[in-house]
Amino acid sequence: xxxxxxxxxxxxxxxxxxxxxxxxxxxxxxxxxxxxxxxxxxxxxxxxxxxxxxxxxxxxxxxxxxxxxxxxxxxxxxxxxxxxxxxxxxxxxxxxxxxxxxxxxxxxxxxxxxxxxxxxxxx
Length: 123
Fold this sequence. Notes:
Layout: H1 3-6, E1 16-23, H2 26-38, E2 44-57, E3 60-74, H3 78-88, E4 97-100, H4 106-113
Antiparallel strand pairs: 1-3, 1-4, 2-3
């Protein structure tokens, strides 16, 4: 493990957090992600197009082409990100998973910890 991960982070800032969420396609992911960026709830998102999901939903086995998204934020706004993502998402019942990060480089922790969050025009 790199020594940079072992450095203490600035505890005056919220810890980094990640959110995982699949979308029906890259276009819908981009639309929602751009809104969350504009609202200051996330600092970055990675869209992974061409993902194939295999699942059991309501007792039926299925397969679907989707685009995965990994969103970067902090724990202070994590619940707000999850709620806003659910409200904006095109699926009726989207899968959204969020968690605090146990380790990050100091620069990444400071970047994500500095998110202002709600107040940049969420509507």
